[in-house]
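Protein modeling request. Please complete all fields; requests missing the sequence field cannot be processed.
Requester role: graduate student
Desired output: 3D structure, token encoding
Chains: 1
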Amino acid sequence: MTIEQKYVFIGHLSQIVLEWAEHICVHDPKYYRGSVSTLYFDTTSLDHYYEKRNSDYLKTKLRLRWYDDVDILDRGVMVRCYLEAKRKHGVSRTKERKEMLFSSGSLRDGLFSDAGIQNAPSRACELDYVPAGILVPILLVQYERHRFVEPRSGSRVAVDTNIRCTQVNPAFIPRLPPVFLDAGVLEVKGPHRELPGSFHAIGAHLTAEAFSKYTMCCEHLMQPLGRRI
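Delivered output (229 residues):
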């Protein structure tokens, strides 16, 4: 069984965490470094956001993810994307994904208006997920990801930095982007629930936390600092 653990660190420590991962791990042989773009869907009342914020036992995310830089592609280039349904039942997590194709122009300029993107949640049933209500695209989260393998445990390690929300659906999010999170995430997928021993030297900078990039971006956009709890 693969166990996923997340450890959050303050954004200005990103270089320290990356340098330590470079020191003790080996690069992922296929996908070492790249940018990740993720469009999150939610209900019109943002039920998925409030599931996480209220620490509900059952939490769900539906998202569309791609790895190409659409800003440098011609509009007609087709980009491989992945529709993902991620669910958490207590401590149990499941994730299913389906490949889809969208034009670079739609991903760059039509996230909240393109009919194909708006209809993507209709394919969620193919991921064994039937939404309770209508899902709409809410916001785009982007970040840089470095991927490693921790040799002792064989765990897969990802370090996510420069996490930011760059586009929002103005019909549901009142504040304008961009929003930059002052945090990074060390994600470990492996056979153990503990932080691999090779990371203990920087353990003081890491906090085990069920961190959600979508939730935190919503929090910064919707909850003024003085009202966050």
